[in-house]
Amino acid sequence: MHSPATYLIRLLIFLVIIIALDLYAFQAVKAISVTSPFKLYWKFSYWGINLAFYAYLIFTIASAGFGANFAPANFHWMATIMLLLYLPKIVLIAILLGEDIFRATKWIVKNMGVLFSSPESSPKSDAITMSRSEFVSKAALIAAAIPFLALGWGIINGRYKFTVKRVRLALKNLPSQFRGFRIVQISDLHTGSFGNKDEVRRGMEMVNSENPDMIFFTGDLVNNEVNELAGYKEIYSLLSAPHGVFSIIGNHDYGDYVRWPSSEAKAANFKAICDIQAEFGWQLLLNQNKIIEKDGAKLAVIGVENWSARNFTTTGDLVKAYQGAEGADIKLLLSHDPTHWDSEVRPKYPDIAATFSGHTHGAQMGIDIPGFRWSPAQWVYKQWSGLYREGDQSLYVNQGLGYIGYMGRLGILPEITVFELEAAPVS
Predict the structure, then answer these.
(1) What is the pLDDT of residues 180-214, one digit of tens each?
(2) How many CA atoms lie within 13 A of 183 on its CB side?
(3) Do 285 and 150 share a structural domain?
(4) Quick one: which of 270, 364, 276, 311 has its CA closest to 76?
(5) What is the DSSP string of 178-208?
(6) pLDDT tens-digit profile of 247-278?
(7) CA distance 259 to 262
(8) Cα angle at 85 between 42 and 192, to 5 degrees?
(9) Segment 19-44 mean pLDDT
């Protein structure tokens, strides 16, 4: 964890960057207000909003002690406002920059050929150039309004639009006793982000309505602290399945993203997050496994703590978690971070039939329609959402039920996944 002085320096650098962006974007406001009787209104409104955001940003970060101790609500509001203000400005600036490059190129060409120009081929008047500039600025502002409205729609309509996805999961050597077995997976609740307990309750009821034989929760129960779970015990205790509700730890559950007064306080917070899951009626697997028997056939549910090929806490121990599961007819792994699959699971454990992950959120925005899927998450993660297969092994990456940062979901909706197990065709 960095010192407050380091955070202060980063804040100042960040402020310089966003002020520079705001000054550049201001070109469009100036251009459209040249002939407007409300030009002072447009200018005061633009800078009034920006100055209010600078003040809010400084106050919020200063209140957190120039560190990472943000209250969840403050963090989400700050992240969401930043996205609403600056994603549209990036679109705006891209268009203005294109226009400026065009003008610069035109100027260079004109001055290179000035000796060969004639009065008839002289450049057009400044009045025409200004008209073109105003047109480009208006077009840029309209284009910038599109992401602003879309992000707003994702906040209003997307964040609690729980969506059920159904997957027929074909597994090699699946015993007949487990064919048709139904598993429901949810992931990444990030409880401190939720602002509506009734909606969360509805989500848990949706899970139960699928009549699952077993339920998997694949990590990130909280953003950081156990106190986020106040008032949620009765809601999460609603989850029920004949063969159990199994959970694992995600990277956020360790409390790595706040400054703790001591290592003992951080350890106590983590222990409390683990202990409360038993009160929910969930079986937390901390590098452990549980054997499910059905008419003589055995299915192993293996759960590891967070394991990541990236810069996240890695305490997952698959060697330890696997012990005792060797004789199971089918093995299913719960591992929060999907990078675990390519890095360790597939190369070393070819008998683990399927891995269930979360973590990516699908970036909470993108396109997910039949025949086409896209998200910024795919720039970071090879496996970012949905079902992946390599040989006889499968990985499923759940998009998460909660959210963090941006207080919405745009195109990539909160997910409840319903799996029905079936035997893979014999090759």
Answers:
(1) 999 999 999 999 999 899 999 999 999 999 999 99
(2) 28
(3) no
(4) 364
(5) GTT-EEEEE----GGG---HHHHHHHHHHHH
(6) 999 999 999 988 899 999 999 999 999 999 99
(7) 9
(8) 140
(9) 82
Measured torsion, CA atoms of residues 342, 345, 349, 355, in degrees rounded to the nearest 10: -110
pLDDT digits (tens, 9 = 90+) for 114-136: 545 555 544 454 444 445 677 88
Pairing of strands 386-390, 214-217: unpaired
Same domain for 147 and 271, yes or no, is: no
Is 134 in the same domain as 186? no
One domain, residues 282 and 402: yes
Residues 189 and 130 in one domain: no
Looking at the DSSP assignment, which residues form a beta bridge with residue 167? 419
Strand 163-171 and strand 415-423: pairing?
parallel
Structure tokens of 266?
A: 């951080």
Count structural domains, the chain. 2
Residue 101 tokens read as: 């490059």
Of the listed ranges 132-146, 278-292, 406-420, the one predicted with least confidence: 132-146
Residue 19 belongs to domain spanning: 4-156
